[in-house]
């Protein structure tokens, strides 16, 4: 029997997933939590085979919780669920060394199979997401350009970014022009959208 800890903050989704997984003859949901901070203590107490974790959780996000599980409870395997099929999110998950990554809209049978594969020591990645990440490639922006874009995405204008990064306003405008060009964006807003969808900021 594969023992599963399920971390999902939406009650209806969590209830549906538990009901579906408990129909499987070889899978048992032994614990459910609704926030990321409860994952490691619950896993330490019950030692499930697989922790199925929603990436967007309150208090502590799923990826941080998964990384903590790997550090403290390496025998517990981790399978991430996400509703956002962003290539950058997949790259972050792989960097956190999770064992599986699946979209929430995958068929129920696919989730059960992914849990079995992860429990057996295999790595599972949603095929469409893997292809998208492959196609998207690496971030073309430098660390400083990413800093500028993050501040722009947070609503700062050029003078505010200049103060925050100890640059001149003209230099910030030059950075923004370079960023837009590198990302093939139409303007600043489009460049922010492209970077967010790719998971770069």
Automatic annotation (TrEMBL):
Positions where 4-aspartylphosphate occurs in the chain:
54
PANTHER family the UniProt entry points to: TRANSCRIPTIONAL REGULATORY PROTEIN DESR, TWO-COMPONENT RESPONSE REGULATOR
Q: Where is the HTH luxR-type domain?
A: 133-199
Q: Would the keyword Signal be found if you checked this record's keyword annotation?
A: no
**Origin species:** Lentzea rhizosphaerae
Domain Response regulatory, residue spans: 3-119
Q: Which domain of life is it from?
A: Bacteria
Q: Which residues cross the membrane?
A: none
- Which InterPro entries does its entry note? CheY-like_superfamily, Sig_transdc_resp-reg_C-effctor, Sig_transdc_resp-reg_receiver, Tscrpt_reg_LuxR_C, WalR-like
Q: What is this protein called?
A: DNA-binding response regulator
| A single MF term (Gene Ontology) | DNA binding
Q: Which UniProt keywords apply?
A: DNA-binding, Phosphoprotein
Name one matching Pfam family: Response_reg
